[in-house]
Amino acid sequence: MATTTAAPGRPAPGRPTTKLGSAALEVDERLIVAGPVRRTLNKVFPDHWSFLLGEIALYSFVVLLLSGTYLTFFFDASMKEVTYGGDYAPLRGVEMSAAFESTLGLAFDVRGGLLIRQMHHWAALLFVASICVHLLRIFFTGAFRKPRETNWFIGVGLLVLALLEGFAGYTLPDDLLSGTGLRIFSAVFLSIPVIGTWIYFTIFGGDFPGELIIGRLYILHVLVIPAILLALIAVHLLILVKQKHTQFPGAGRTEHNVVGNRLFPTFAGKATALFFIVFGLCAGLGGLVQINPIWLFGPYNPAQVSSGSQPDWYIGFLDGSARLFPPWEIVMWGYHITPVFWATVAIPGLMFTALALYPVIERKLTGDTASHHLLQRPRDVPVRTSLGAMALSFYIVLWISGGNDVIADKFDISLNAMTWFGRIGMIVIPPIVYALTYRLCLGLERHDREVLEHGIETGVIRRLPSGEFIEVHQPLGPVDEHGHGQLAYGGASVPKKMNQVGGARRAVKGFFKPIEEPAAVQAEARRETRGLEAARESRELTGSGRPTEGGRPAEGGRPSEGGRPQQEPRD
Amino acid sequence: MTTTDHRPGSAGGTDEPGPLHGGPDDDYSPERLAAMDATELDRLGARYDGVEVLHVDPAPAPGSRLEKQASRQVTLWFFLAGVFALAFLVVYVGSGWFLPTWRWRIDGSLWSDLYTPLVGLTMGLSLISVGIGLVLFVKKLLPHETAVQDKHDGSHFDRVTTAATLNGALTNSGLTRRKAMTRTLGFMGAAFGAMLIAPLGGMLKNPNTGNPLGTTLWADGVRIVRDDGTPIRPGDQEPGSLATVFPAVPGGHFSADSPLMLIRLRPEQMAEVQPRAGQEDFGYGDYVAYSKICTHAGCPVSLYEQETSRILCPCHQSQFDVTQGAKPIFGPATRSLPQLPIAVDDEGYFVARGDFPEPIGPSFWNIGRVS
Amino acid sequence: MSTTNPSSEAPLEGGRRRLSLRRRPDAGSPASAARARRRSKQRRRIANVAGLMAALVLTGVGYSALAPGASAADDPTGNPSSAVEAGREIYTRSCITCHGSNLQGVQDRGPSLIGVGEASVYFQVHTGRMPLVRQEAQAAERPTLFSDEEIDQLMAYVQENGGGPTLPSGDLRDGDLAEGGELFRLNCAQCHNFTGMGGALSSGKRAPTLLDANDMTLYTAMLSGPENMPVFGDNQLTPDEKRAIINYVQTIKTTADPGGAGIGRVGPVAEGLVIWVVGMGALLFGIFWMGTKA
Questions:
Q1: CA distance A409 to chain B (A)
Q2: Co-location of B5 and B22 in the same domain
């Protein structure tokens, strides 16, 4: 680290002159870490907002670990029957399990316990949500292609484990809502052909609910699954570091480099900031928005249920699938295969298998066996993009159907109509989405080519001597004798507005409403007579925290800094 | 004490220090490094790691208006973070001390209602303020550099040499020749692995001993009681009513198999009743009793619509018609809710006339073979 | 709480006794008259209107004779016959089209009101479900059309001519909170949700939210089983148990949420919406902002 920071002219060159430097030297003489630390600090991270999505998942996992550890200090994972005598009057004297009672205690007897519990639950919802968004980013930009298939497999494994972990945690309080969910899960195990009843009896230690399941789920939830998650996350990140990041195409970006910021200090600063923001968001939600109010649900009782019983959002698609699947039970010689099996084992099994194997499938279909480090814009791979949109629409139909009773109630729609909407929708909507997405991709691709060939629409209408009106186009590069651009499409985003190429005055500052006078900006632009270079500098020195180029982030797809394609490529 | 120069632990050989770990110290003597300034050293190390800093937008000049403004902003956010953290501490520690109690009661004070939102809000704002301050710091006060790092593809040299080492060990072990040993290793591995997971067999439970899936607590003569344990007379329910009832046996109230819906049909419904074949006499007068456990996924049904005679399951919206032997008429359920044969005992209270004629709850593989 | 309460102890007791008197002979008697009435609100048999009337009069008279102190409270409107008379006018004006001139109901329009009692009248009219605007899956809840006095008169008229369950009196929240919660979860939550937010039923019907219901509405709903709701007679859920349930419902809906905003108290659907719209939305905005240059 700071072992070589001696000022010139000192008697012993290379010897540290400060206390900190001496301490660092002492450390490095023992651990020899200066080299690896420097390599780590110098690691370059691409600077695009979408690369932070996975980090949200990572940080919400950290929040989960911290808050979850706190909760274990108070939670009693036992199904022993107790009679509640605590602070919450509407349940006083009610028989419940010790697990439920201790969860109530967390809310009403532990100072700040409710905040931590709710923070934990919100962080869990955020964890899965951010994994999903991260996955979508990876999918639609083709970041899963060789050599990153392994990390894709691990990622899908992490998603599945996160779902299991979430479900186990959701079940632990042994309240009426989660107990209903557990009962449905017991039916899922039971539905598996041949070995279903064995699995069911083994998991519950007998018939549902037994007295063991909360304890078993607890150890899964706090030890087994988190340990696997942690290990897989570590491998996920190690592979990421080893393989280095992908990046969007742009000037100077090749398959053999990474353009961005070094880890220290820029990226480290932003990543730490994001951790604080994620943590703060979970804390804020945990305090301000009530989640899983088990005292309203009451303790689990196999004879009780509530309308609008739902799982957490990430299990919703399973619930929806179970709701939509038609009553088809296959009976052969007294052996049954139930609709629950198809809906909650076969369909999700297929969904996750297809998801996991997608990189392999795409390789087989396209025959593309090369390594790729440059990302693709979704529009440039219409088939993959359309397939993804199709799968997503299928998932969303299932997901909506998971809450179709609440939707039916709140929007005054017939419940049976909602079911039929889902049944028909899960078959009809995905192909429609595929076709629409495909057309959309082609249209966007064409528009890119058109701008490259003819230039940006300036909005200036000119009348030709012949009387014809034309719109003046600003070419993006040198043109041939017909006025057609010579630029080839390079996989990067094409500027489509004059102010993205510095050809118009900069955008007026202010996110929701302008915070400066448009006239003043115009005047400023007139004063800047030194051309684009000066205009760019003035832009970069502004400090509103707002993207100045057309309201979009400046990095990433931009062909170069400041969005000016005519700047010469580097490297 | 010896006269020889053998140091402890030395096993001979020259005791010279080897090349230092890491960097090219031969090329860069301490004197040469000492002559370079911090930026040069930084770039040197970066180059050594395959990183080229292409372009640096300098940080605002110290003392400039922009710099002052930015550092004011950053300071403000860090200050706010401290203030919110302090507010958190005040609310967290002070409640019940110099502030009203945090303990929440249904008839509690406004303060106890606000306690959790307040601690959450202050904690969240504090953390988010730190984050915002950091982002502003990085964006506005640090130089913005654009760096390029080379990506290295795999090396043929590495592959060949590694493979040679591995292959050498394999050859030396002779495993390729010693077939018996290889096979034994395979056998050992399989048996060993099986041994390791075998103790999990302690979790196994046979679902077929004693037919637990086909039986419930209901039996001939078991009285039907409410959740408070009181028995039920035929006169107790009004037509068009539904009661959730339980078997009068120990544990009947919390058994997952036994909750029963005791339904008294209205005369209009009685006129439409079409019991399942062989179950015509299961009811008693205008009373019928069905298992409350859904045959789809095991939720308690019982959203009873007494005018349409439907019973709806709140979990997956299966709908059953009580006048047709609780036949499923909508949704994913495939089997009718099992009906319990009921009668009235000598004292005039409802009793069961036996167990359900079929397994209750969700279907499973061999459901057709147990009963 | 109820606005006015024409009945006091006497009719309540009379009503209960009448119920038990009526119940036995009911079992198994023919019901062909009502078979085709799709939207029947009839809760019990019309086996013997005369007998019922006799029972009403007998028990009423008998009780007031036995309990002279109650006779003053018997009759808050002062003159029962004038109330009944006024009720008949309202009935003729607003109800007769569907329920017939003698409460016997009209085919395909409205059910018989014989035996539904003032409890049912209170519930249906006070919540504005009756008079019905149009025939649909379920009567909609609307602002009530009648004044409390008019409702009292209508109740008196229907009670006088049809008989049936009467309004309770006293403190309708006089029950154990926790017991009410258990009973609520066992008997009510499956349709009305944990917190009384209501829920969907089959084919466009729904269990209404209990947020707007007053004590008397809750009580009369349980007693009369309006529309698709099952009946909870006094021998199934005793008056004490009903009061416990009412206490629970009314307590829960007025208590604050200790954990912040209740987001509708409908459970995970709203929570999922919040994490995606608020949580994910805020974070996407955040990283978007972090990714931009200053």
A1: 12
A2: yes
* Burial of residue A7 (number of CB atoms within 10 Å: 0-12, 13-18, 19+): exposed
* B33 and B156 housed in the same domain: yes
In this structure, the answer to whether residues A21 and A137 fall within a common structural domain is: no
A73 contact B CB<8A: no
Residues of B in contact with C27 (CB under 8 A): 234, 285-286
C272 vs A554: CB contact, 8 Å cut-off?
no
Give residue A14's domain range. Answer: 2-42
Alpha-helix runs per DSSP H in A32-148: 34-42, 53-72, 98-108, 113-141
Angle between helices A316-324 and A415-454 (to 10 degrees): 120
* DSSP per-residue letters across A426-471: HHHHHHHHHHHHHHHHHHHHHHHHHHHHH-EEEEEEEE-TTS-EEE
Contact A291 C271 (CB under 8 A): yes
Do residues A114 and A226 both lie within one domain? yes
Using CB atoms, list chains with 3+ pairs below 8 Å to chain A.
B, C
CA distance B311 to chain A (A): 13
Q: Which chains touch B (3 or more CB pairs under 8 A)?
A: A, C
- The domain boundary, picked from A317, A346, A375, lies at A346
Interface touch C200/A296, C-beta < 8 Å? no
- Beta-carbon contacts of A303 under 8 Å, excluding residues fewer than 6 positions away, are B227, B244, B246, B253, B259, B292, B300, C186
ipTM for the predicted complex: 0.90
Is A379 inside a domain boundary?
no
Which A residues, 91 through 130, put their C-beta within 8 Å of a C-beta on chain B? 107-108, 111-112, 114-115, 118-119
B200 and B234, same domain (yes or no): no
HSE-CB at A303 with a 13 A cutoff on CA atoms is 26
User: For residues C234 and C58, what is the distance between their CA atoms, to the nearest angstrom?
Assistant: 21
Going A111 to A112 to A118 to A123, the CA torsion angle's sign is: negative
Q: Tell me, yes or no, if C109 comes closer than 8 A to chain A by beta carbon.
A: no
Domain extent, residue B338, equals 210-371
The pLDDT tens digits along chain C (294 residues) read 444 444 333 333 333 333 333 333 333 333 333 343 433 434 444 444 444 444 545 554 444 444 443 333 444 444 557 777 787 877 777 787 788 777 777 777 777 777 777 888 788 878 878 877 777 767 777 777 777 777 878 787 778 777 778 788 888 888 889 999 999 999 999 899 888 888 888 888 888 888 888 888 898 888 888 888 898 988 888 889 999 999 999 998 888 888 888 888 888 999 999 999 999 999 999 998 887 765
Tell me: do A120 and A221 sit in the same domain.
yes
Kindly list the structural domains of chain C, giving each domain's residue range(s) and its CATH number in brackets, ordered by start.
Answer: 80-162 (1.10.760.10), 177-253 (1.10.760.10)
- Contact C268/A at CB under 8 A: yes
Query: Residue A177 contacts by C-beta under 8 Å, 6 or more apart in sequence?
Result: A292, A294, A297, A306, A309, A310, C194, C267, C268
Whether B204 and B216 share a structural domain: no
Structural domains in chain A (count): 2
> Is B91 in a helix, a strand, or coil?
helix
For residue A178, count CB atoms less than 10 angstroms from its CB and return exposed for 0-12, middle for 13-18, buried for 19 or more.
Answer: buried
Q: Residue B239 and residue C39: Cβ atoms within 8 Å?
A: no
**Number of Cβ pairs < 8 A linking chain A and chain B:** 340
- H/E element holding B310? strand B310-312
- C242 phi and psi, to 5 degrees? -60, -45
Backbone φ and ψ of A554, nearest 5°: -80, -25
- C-chain CB neighbours of B115 within 8 Å are 258
Contact C43/B267, CB-based, under 8 Å? no
Q: Whose structure tokens read 């028989």?
A: A95
Contact C200, C270 (CB under 8 A): no
Tell me, yes or no, whether B189 and B292 share the same domain.
no
CA-CA distance, A139 to A143, in Å (whole number)?
6
